[in-house]
Amino acid sequence: MAVDREAAFGVVRAVAAKLGLDRGEIELLGPIADNAVFRLPGRTVARIATSAAEDRALREVRTGRWLATQGFPAVQPLESIHQPLSIDSHVVTLWHEIPEPSIASTAELAVLLRQLHTLPMPTDFDIPVLDPFVRLNEHLEAAESELSSTDRDFLANHLEQLKADYTSVSAGLQVCVIHGDANRKNAIRGRDGRAVLLDLERFSVGPREWDLIVPAVYQRLGWYSDAEYNAFVEAYGWDVRTWPGFATYAALREFRMTAWLLSRLVREPRLRNEANIRIASLREPDAPRSWTPGT
Question: Which domains can be identified in the chain, with CATH numbers?
């Protein structure tokens, strides 16, 4: 569920007061969607979601702490406070800020994922099994009033076909610890030159192919150059495009990217043209893509 902007600012001010921090130095980081992310004084980052995300927030904090015990480079939750916080029907997690962050290279992302995929399974907290269809129906329902009946029917039927295809190609795949949403914004390099993973809410047990499909889709969309993608493949040691299930996983990833954008149409009508472009692409899986990144 999307976070209300005014409510998010009220919550983060309450958090700052609770921590004894200057509310005048609060800074919103990026657009508000399922989460609102703020920088607070003292190199602290607050992630705010609605109370419906409480279980997810708790798991994210536990994941960050577990990754620290494994020596894995990931964003770390504050240790000095019991988390998550519950404030005014919202759930808040607090994290150490990565100073002077910049987007990690594709090769750095590949190294992080390769290391992650070799970690043992956590034993001190429950780790969910990957659900690649999580929230898709909710996203489509949020966009229902903005879609033609033809598009609604196409998307519903396409989703059912993807479910069947995913089950078929995933049968027998080995599973491991995965990030679950290894997109371009979720690996950053700090001032010290060390790359770390962010956004641990989709951390789960699943096939490594689900993490590797994201850079491959970005290359197909032109969001990664051939050189950038080749650097990723060289650093990881395998190209998921050679796997027989690639087309299914790529189609599902593109569907997720489209459904998330559709869910924003009511509050962001500026996305209408991009939504139409993406739906048209889903109808023609082999046609070239021209999607706008960052939307």
Answer: 5-97 (3.30.200.20), 106-283 (3.90.1200.10)
